[in-house]
Specification:
single chain, Thrombin, subunit H, Helix Hairpins, six-stranded antiparallel beta barrel, four-stranded antiparallel β-sheet, 16 helices, about 55% helix, disordered N terminus
Length: about 675
Amino acid sequence: MTMKDYKGAERRRYIRLKSVFPVEFKLLSPNLAEELSGLKQGFTADVSKGGILLRINSVEPDVLSALKRDGTKLTLNINIPIYSKSIKAISGIAWMKVITKSEGELCLLGLSFEEISDKDRKTLVGHAKSLYRTPILVALALIVMLMSIGINRIEEVSLKKENTVLIEQLADVVQRRTDLVGWLDKADADKEILLATLKDHTKSIREAQIEQEKLIAKEEELKSTVIDLETLKKELAISKNAQGVLGKKLGNLSRDKDRLQNRLAIITHNEQERLKEFAIVETARLSLEKATVDNMYNWMKVHQNRKTGLIASYEGDPALKNTAFIYDQSIVAQVFILNRDFESAKAILDFFKDRAPRTSNAFANAYGVNSGGITEYTVHCGPNIWLGIALMQYMNQTGTHEYLDLAKQIGDWVIGVQGLDPDGGIKGGPEVTWYSTEHNLDAYAYFIMLYKVTDEEKYKEAAKKSLVWIKKNTYTGDSGRIRRGKGDSTIATDTFAWAIASIGPAMLTRIEMDPDAIMKYAEDNCKVTVDFVRPDGKTVMVTGFDFAKHKNIGRGGVVSSEWTAQMIVALKMMSDFYLDSGDKIKARHYRKKYTFYLSELEKMVIASPSRTGQGAGCLPYASHDDVDTGHGWRTPRGRDTGSVSGTAYGIFAMKGFNPLKLAASKK
């Protein structure tokens, strides 16, 4: 059979596969009785069920001579790398081709199996097929993977673009709203001045008309009086002259009144047009705000660690990338609860119930997002209380009591700290000497929650002690000032906001802590207007609240997104309080303020810079990075560093949610 005939027959009978296996062989006489060569080595080139194509490099002359003899047989040991045993076969030579090269003779042998077990035949061909298919399958898998990555990347880029556009639209709409509010406020002021001026003009016109009527009456009286003609003429001339002056005055007043009325009409017309535009802008803002809230919720959700349930407190600051502060975990858990995402909230709370290591019988301030280990061993009361608040909010909304034991443990631990002070104050922690007003406000709210759920008197008494301590040690009187802590005159904006949120306007009024004065003091001393540079380089003016009285720090104003959001929540509470009390004027006053600051806060929403964040909306910790807050820490580094606390409290502000009160359950 010629080589051509053999190949044609093989195509008809077998599936030929390109494969390479090491092959050891010996040459035998046609009757298999005599060895014509020692053990030699070659390689398969093709494999089929019926035989192999054997390649022998640099074949020796005596071997080549033996191969050329008629009837020469080969014993084969075909070595497949992944199999421990070689495949054994005896074959005949169907064809042979010798290629002369500079390094020697190369021989190609077409071998047909004469003896081979069915098992070895299947193993040989099966492995050859796998080698044939594997590159294809790998290539296909690689193509599918690349396509998947490409599609995911396209979707990721598309989603990031959509999110960025949403945030830009919100910023534009909010800025337009701010401009309109400014114009409408100016129009109101102009109208007020015009109306006052018109009132004065109307009064002056009426006075001139009365004087004119008196002059006319006097003329008639003169005509009927018996006097000499010359005197009469003189008196009448004086009267006519006075009437002329009055007539000119009336004319001027009437023309001025007409001009003022025309201006008022123009302003009123423009105001109506602006109000129509404002209604459109406000509708758009509310729609974008809702989408942004969902966006911000998603930003936090995608950053949740699946193993621990924790979320890094900051995105963008390398020094804090793996740090989860307890306070931040509490408020992000409450964001999840607000969104009815109880599974995500539970993942956080379960970490503290089941896994989080404790120190000094309480939780440390911060834990590692990935490891769950303690990263800040300091123990403060405030963070523990906030964790308890999250537990209470979860149980309140789900109707369960699965975290009540842990919540009571935290409450009892805080009561233990409270018992160390004869006045009932709660120090910053068991190992510190300072007192924080904020911690005591947190504790008051927490004790009220525990009492409401457990009906245990110890929590009611603890709440009373906290309230008395706050009034005695932090409130300064009519000015509305609240100290940062006992014996600490520093201004901290959150103490004003949380006094409203924790105690409530009604109770504050009852214990003679004036809520109006508290809010006014915060605005007078902590409100700032700053230039905020957005990540795209665009600069916008933002009015909000600083961490402290910035004039006392000397670094210029800084807007805290979180503390501004806290003030927004407090302002809304004030509006609702006066609306419920029937004082619509004050209710409108506070409503106007909280909607203004909310719009200003929304200017600070930025697109997440990370791939994980996918451009979702978040709030930076402050308008400026790496600056002194005035309270012993600095803002995170990075202009576009996303903050969990800022973002979470921003959602509270947009939704009008007060985390320091148990809301009515939606179940």
